[in-house]
Fold this protein.
Amino acid sequence: MEIKAFIFDLDGVLTDTAEYHYQAWKRLAGRLGMKFDRKENERLKGVSRMQSLEIILELNKRQDEFSEEEKARLADEKNEEYVRLIQKVSPDDVLGGVMPFLREARENGMKLAVASASKNARTVLGGLNIAWIFDYIADAARIKNTKPDPEVFLNCAKHLGVPPGSCIGFEDAQAGIEAIHAAGMFAVGIHVDVTGDAPDLILSSTEELDYRTVMDAAVRKK
Ligand code: BG6
Ligand code: MG
């Protein structure tokens, strides 16, 4: 099947906001006297805000300590800090190699979409000033099942009017790679800490994004 669309995760792929998510969770964990490090943070990449909180509570064996209302307040507290951190996101924060890659993809007629689990995706894309380049941006608030479920990638393919098998997904998280594969798409992993299902093409950073390399790898797989 011909490749017709590229679907990108946002946090950690188009920009390094994965670091801000980490800092915001780390601050909350610190206030609650809980342990939380970068290795553990890998499990939070691509998963929703509430699920992320559950993972941190579970890691600290404190999952039974808080009511649903308290948990919602803790998630809000993390989000307030995250929103504060992303105010400083600017066009300079688009990761190296991303803009030329997006431009070349567009020039070659690829449709482009963003498949982020973040309810703050539009704010971040606005700060980066790159929303205009995408044909579709999934609305995380309308996605019921978070990655590794394929829902957000399938939602993008549907709105682009392209069959999933004609899409390539780009991710920095293990959960995201699994979501792309479950959607029936070719998976490009960028700086992924692979702990399970491996990406079809592995890049160590966005600087390695190259239109021909990606397309050739996808065509070879078919
Ligand atoms: C994903 C991040 O993109 O969005 C996760 O990888 C984050 O770390 C998730 O938890 C939800 O983000 P938000 O902004 O809705 O809390
Ligand atoms: Mg990510």
User: Anything to note?
Assistant: The beta strands are 5-8, 111-114, 136-137, 167-171, 186-190, 201-203. Residues 9, 11-13, 18, 45-46, 172-173, 176 surround magnesium ion (ligand 2) (CB under 6 Å). DSSP finds nine helices and six strands in the chain. The CA atoms of residues 98 and 113 lie 14 Å apart.
